[in-house]
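Recall the central idea of this unit: under ordinary conditions, the amino acid sequence of a chain determines the structure it adopts. In this exercise we apply that idea directly, starting from the sequence alone.
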Amino acid sequence: MPGQGKKYYKIGEVSRITGVEPHVLRYWENEFPQIKLRRVARQRLFRKKDLELIVRIRELLYEEGFTINGAKKQLAKESRGMAAPVVRPAAVSPQPPKGEILAQVRTELAEIKKMLEDF
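Accordingly, the structure predicted from this sequence is:
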């Protein structure tokens, strides 16, 4: 993580490091009480621990498909040591080979073309 020696990060830095837009960070600040940033002269200052938490929240919401409430519950479980991160079945299910998908699309397009010609 950039800036290893830094104690605090401004919201723009956090946004660049975590890939989360500043307005989303401000929203998450209200939704997730675990984010304990400091305010100094109207500036939001995040600790390294906050950055790690933000990355985990991003994973839960964007990659694992949790809702805000679901992410809150999952974080609570993880903080109590009750649960390892959940892997959703959809993320584990194998995708068919690309060639197979393309063949299916070609077949469906041919069917649509025939229907249009008969129309």
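The CA atoms of residues 12 and 22 lie 7 Å apart.
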